[in-house]
Amino acid sequence: MTPAHGGPVVDVHAHVFPRISRAESRLLQDDEGPWLRSDGADGPGRGMMMRGSREYRPVRRTLWDPAARVADLDRLGVDVQVLSSTPLLFGYDADAGRAADWCRMVNSRLLEFGSYAPQRLAALCQVPLQDTEAACAMVTEAMGQGFHGVHIGNHIGERDLDDGAVVEFLTHCAHENAPVLVHPWDMPGGPRVERYMLQWLVGMAAETHLTLLSMMLSGAFERLPRSLRLLFAHGGGSFPYLVGRADNAWRRRDLVRADSPHPPSAYTDRFSVDSAVFDQRALEHLVQVMGAEQVLLGSDHPFPLGEAEIGGLVRESALTDAEKAAVLGGNAVRFFGLVRHRTGQEAMR
């Protein structure tokens, strides 16, 4: 389907939970590994993300079935979707050796999912980020296998992305020309956030804000190559709306600017964000803060909290036609190195 602006529509934030049995989940953790119940026990076209014997989240067929996914993309007018694993599959708290084997299995399933329609589905690998050497080796291996980048969580236990080992990993990604999608995950728990999905509604935005400020104020962006392509999911969390507060603190407090030669707003050209903010005014502000060239269409498809009509928010916004074209697909073509196929849909190199 061809959008009104004539350019491609590329959704850069979309998840897959490939078919993984409970027996296979024990490759990662003996009794608590993640797996997918997709045998029809939850109803037609329904399944359940599991963690050991515990139900984690109900899901629908498009999460694991590539034919159903492509049919959804046809219905929604999406030319290409960039696929990443469900964060539950990261495995950062597991033994590094087991996590490496696990990531290879997950990655093979992601490639298999994408092979159903290689002109429509572009996969990102995942890596055992708790082991820098293994993670770097896996990125190199994955880029040679046809992956279009790597998907990571915004922290590894108590280590954020400004940690020296993670900076080493990100530098390696830059050298391998591997784009990096950063997704918030493993939000703090407790009674105050256990109701109403507040971990997702508040915690996710706070996690990304925390990660971005940690990278800025620690000087991590000063140590990272400018060639690194970083993309933060969920519109950069709450950072774009509170950057003024952070700049004010940097100007007024030595403690805040101790390790950063520039205020946080000076680093907004070092990363991109997706458009998953679900409000026109929020999207328009996001574009003002980041620049239209650094906002990419993202839906969080096919989860219920994702954008139901992918790209609808962008099309209905007050952005200019050129800005809409950039956000809907042009930026993603550049960011992920996609090329136009002769049919007019996007294809991957």
TrEMBL record:
Among InterPro entries, the record links this protein to: ACMSD, Amidohydro-rel, Metal_Hydrolase
Question: What SUPFAM superfamilies does the annotation carry?
Answer: Metallo-dependent hydrolases (SSF51556)
Q: Which UniProt keywords apply?
A: Decarboxylase, Lyase, Metal-binding, Zinc
Question: What are its E.C. numbers?
Answer: 4.1.1.45
Region of interest: Disordered? 31-52
| Pathways per UniProt | Secondary metabolite metabolism; quinolate metabolism
What residues does the Amidohydrolase-related domain cover? 10-338
Complex and partners? Monomer.
**Entry similarity comment:** Belongs to the metallo-dependent hydrolases superfamily. ACMSD family.
Question: What protein name applies here?
Answer: 2-amino-3-carboxymuconate-6-semialdehyde decarboxylase
The species this protein was found in: Streptomyces cremeus
